[in-house]
Specification:
2 copies of one chain form a homodimer. Helix content of chain A is about 40%, strand content about 10%. Chain A has a 5-stranded mixed sheet with strand order 2-10-9-8-7. A 3-stranded antiparallel sheet of chain A has the order 11-14-13. The N and C termini of chain A lie far apart (about 55 Å). Chains A and B meet through helix 1, helix 3, helix 4, helix 7 and helix 8 of A and helix 1, helix 3, helix 4, helix 7 and helix 8 of B.
């Protein structure tokens, strides 16, 4: 509708991000976002689950929360409790599980009950850009702690907590992604988890454990969650089905003790997560989740192999990377001359989308010549072609990589 | 899990509502909440829609936003645009419609981009308790404007806006529920809508138009939305499928010009509304929505008749009420001696849940002896028995109504 304009600008909230640009479809070579492999969506099994559960329980759609109350669809919560016990040694009942609209809502709810502007939280030095952005939006300071191959470094965490304590600052939580860390894709060892929890106790700082990728280790195994260990009362645990079944479903979960959960429920005034999503996923998972995962992991691993081969071919040894323990992204280090924020801007104009490392690191600087490449959604052909194009653009902008002389084919 | 306790209290946000109580099921006589008639959920048609759309488009679940982008599932948006044109004379394209997780998310998004703590907004003197609670939580002042049978009173709105202007206050918006007002269930006349929009222009204050009940007028007709009138650029319009199809679905929509929409999209970082909810509802609506509504309206009208008969029987002429133009609730005035907040507390102990008028009025006082009764979910038997119990409890607590001598059977 063409209409005269009214100036909303003087009425806006004093602190907003820049307006969104109109959506014009996904870029042709899309290496960003948690999208997944389209052929791995279990369409037939979701369809039969939908048929069963809608026929059986469809009339419960007449009530907010179905017949399950504010925590969410009870059969799905029961599945999650059993799954967490089997996979991650977490002992919890279905009454300690809250269904959220993706793990993103878990982030928002925890932030809502714990964070005031000006507060401080601890994050991993390289961390999920969406979590860092949320903290910025809330006016919350975050202090990054370096990682190694076992995850968040306990020695560095201790120093950070001591330095903050010396300044009279008690951080609100330690946010970490222990299993398939985002973006480094490492798995925090069990011993390291124990150390982090001990520091949490010593300094009186809760752990905010984001295990949204934990179903996607190549081995299928994962260490016990910190929520499973002594000290679990200090741990708020979130997880997701976005990576293991489908991102568009918008279903995650949160596990916490009642003093936290009762606060979260008091501010969660959204009327619940989408009911058909919950019902169909709950019905699906009981019958099919465990058989689905190995197939998905194999598909993702094959795409990752393709990505790594393509990187070696296009960038030679100028793209450095470790082999992820699982997941849907590869963290890549380029020579220091390459500013990946600029690379991302230029590449997008040619239809190649990447996450510049500055957006995925707490300090920005340490990610300046790094990038994150998501590989689950594009086809292998698109991965190959996209990486080749990225290398060409990088060469044009930064003179690197040198003309392709592949060394590791 | 029984665990030692950790004291989260010193870490909590400085301003939180009281912790939630554990959920113990719905009360036996539940006259609160936007629940709907369970037998009216179109289970068979939802089921066939699910079968078609999952088979056809299930693999699009692999991407956030499906293939439709951040505004939500495109076929559902197209349906909404066509429906708003046909029913409410709103001219908008599917690209001006945002799918939200219920109209509640619409409230949250508009509040997020427009409101700072300390701001002022205009509301109807009797209004939706959930909207008022949100404003309280944000530290926003709201000023109530009285209603009459044609809706928000234009003369009173002008006085209020003048008084605020004299104090240098520019309210951020005028929030109103024009069609089947909550809780009075009146319909704002077309002439009154025009007057409100003219005042909006004169004082430079946008209109926030909540039409979430507009599908449920008994006649099936509704006046043009303010979003359809000259001045629409100042109107943010929201609506919902919670009342017309099923509350558990969590699907609503928002219509606004791009300067507003682009701001909303920039803060809407939830990954989208539940995809199966969107897909199945979109598929369902194209084939069945228009045929479904008359059946639902007839069912609701019959339950309302039962409620009104029950009120006359149990309260005689001591319960005063107007006949709603549609919807799922009855606004009732009791004698001034009755404090409905206390009545609600006592009644709940006997399994009878009501909305006390103080929670549904901007000043509290004008609702002190009023209550809202939702009638869509309970059966007619439950309605009759619940109203009888409520009258008994009221008599025990307040000596009113006098022993039943029904006058209007």
């Amino acid at each position: 509708m063409s209409s005269p304009s009214f100036d909303f600008a003087p009425l806006l909230h004093h602190s907003l991000p820049a307006p969104a640009a109109a959506w014009t479809g996904f870029p042709a070579f899309n290496f960003v976002g948690g999208h997944n492999d389209a052929d791995s969506i279990p369409v037939a099994d979701l369809l039969s689950a939908a048929g069963r559960v809608i026929a059986r329980e469809g009339s419960t759609l007449a009530t907010y929360g179905l017949s399950s109350g504010p925590l969410g669809y009870a059969p799905l919560r029961a599945f999650i409790a059993a799954k967490l016990a089997a996979d991650a040694s977490v002992k919890c009942s279905a009454e300690e599980v809250l269904i959220t609209s993706g793990s993103l809502q878990g982030l928002d709810l925890v932030n809502r009950i714990l964070l005031n502007p000006g507060d401080t939280v601890i994050v991993e030095q390289a961390s999920y850009g969406g979590a860092l952005n949320r903290l910025r939006g809330l006016g919350v300071k975050f202090q990054g702690v370096p990682l190694d191959h076992d995850g968040l470094r306990a020695d560095a965490l201790r120093s950070t907590l001591e330095a903050l304590r010396a300044r009279g600052v008690r951080p609100k939580y330690i946010y970490c992604i222990p299993t398939v860390q985002n973006p480094t894709a490492t798995v925090m060892s069990e011993a390291r988890r124990r150390e982090i929890l001990d520091l949490s106790e010593h300094f009186g700082v809760p752990v905010f454990e984001d295990e949204c990728y934990a179903d996607l280790t190549w081995s299928g195994a994962r260490p016990p969650a910190m929520r499973a260990m002594a000290g679990a009362e200090r741990v708020i645990h979130i997880g997701s089905f976005s990576k293991s079944v489908a991102p568009a479903l918008r279903l995650g979960y949160l596990v916490a003790d009642w003093p936290v959960m009762s606060r979260i429920l008091s501010v969660k005034n959204d009327g619940g997560a989408g009911a058909l999503d919950q019902m169909i996923l709950g019905e699906y998972c009981l019958a099919h989740f465990n058989a689905h995962l190995p197939r998905l992991r194999a598909t993702l691993r094959a795409k990752l192999d393709c990505l790594q081969d393509s990187l070696r071919e296009a960038f030679g040894d100028q793209a450095q990377f470790d082999d992820p323990a699982g997941g849907i992204f590869q963290w890549v280090t380029l020579p220091e001359a390459v500013d990946t924020s600029r690379l991302a801007q230029v590449a997008l104009q040619s239809g190649v989308a990447i996450n510049p490392g500055a957006e995925w690191t707490s300090d920005g600087d340490s990610g300046r010549h790094r990038l994150r490449l998501c590989f689950a959604h594009p086809s292998k052909e698109t991965i190959r072609e996209g990486v080749l194009r990225l290398a060409e653009i990088c060469r044009r902008e930064f003179g690197l990589p040198h003309q392709a002389t592949p060394k590791h084919r």
